[in-house]
Amino acid sequence: MKNLFSQAIAHISSLFNGLQAKRFLAVVLVGFLVLTTNINSGRDDKALRETVRERVEQNDAQRPKTTGQWNREARETEDSPGERLQKIGKESAEAFKEFGSGYAEGANKTAGDVKEGAAKAADNISR
To answer: How far apart are CA 61 and CA 69, in angstroms?
Structure first.
């Protein structure tokens, strides 16, 4: 009986030691990959910057879209605090409406993709 317990404990401890070795190996492998790959390759891509800028500015709305634009507008306006709050409220409502329309478009596309996937799965099952 004692021998059975000692064998079980030895087996469990060898499993834990094996897991620690596997974790260490995984950490070393990930570290090696991170250190040897060129992470900064896209950082200086001017075309990417322009594409992002165009996407931010693609909407015709006259409200600010970036934090810098919000801050600049706040410094430039000499509106009373009440007028400024009304303007912020209108701009926020416009932004939420814009976000909601994008969310609805994405949800509709996802629902369509799910429907197509379910139809394909049903066809595969029926065959």
So the answer is: 13
* pLDDT tens column, 55-89: 766 666 677 777 787 778 777 777 677 777 788 78
* Mean per-residue pLDDT over the chain, rounded: 77
Spacing of C-alpha 77 from chain mean position: 34
CA 67, 73, 75: angle at the middle one, nearest 5?
105
Cβ density class 60-88: b for 16+ within 10 Å, e for less:
eeebebeeeeeeeeeeeeeeeeeeeeeee
Quickly tell me which residue has 């990930």 as its tokens.
30
Q: What percent of the chain is modeled with pLDDT above 90?
A: 0
Residue 77, C-beta contacts closer than 8 angstroms, at least 6 positions apart: 84, 87
CB 104 within 8 A of CB 96: no
